[in-house]
Input
Amino acid sequence: MTAPHTGIGTFTVRPLDPLKDAELLHGWVTDPKAAFWMMQDAKLEDVERAYMEMAADEHHHALLGLHDGVPAFLMERYDPAHRELVGLYEPLPGDVGMHFLVAPTDTPVHGFTRAVITAVMAHLFADPATTRVVVEPDVGNKAVHALNEAVGFEPDREIEKPEKTALLSFCTRAQFEKAVAA
Output
């Protein structure tokens, strides 16, 4: 999977290995820039446990994203009819929920995070069964709202989740294709 029109490199994903990748992920999710991931105080064992539970869950999957073969982001795909958004909206057939987290770096590359979310969306829409991607970022996460808009998401409404007030947003395949063609 390559991110369309980025010129930043090649993005691929592989299934996350909760035990082998836990130390790497622990550094990512506890970084101050990952505050919205809500795992700031997690211990290594907490990260292992959380991703082992996800690996055993048929409705929630974690993938490790690679940039030119080097781990660079975390991607989660979930079924909103069974996880995260149950009872908070009426899911449609083909809806897929998504979370992503870019690894912290001391040498940021301009446009990298946008290239990552574009690659994540391209990966999700590579599955013909996916008709719409659903996200629920914290209402205060203005940076991710701008990224979501850049790849075609349209905000629907604020919803109350147990851990946050979230901005429920949707992106159809046509909206994504239009956004990345621009």
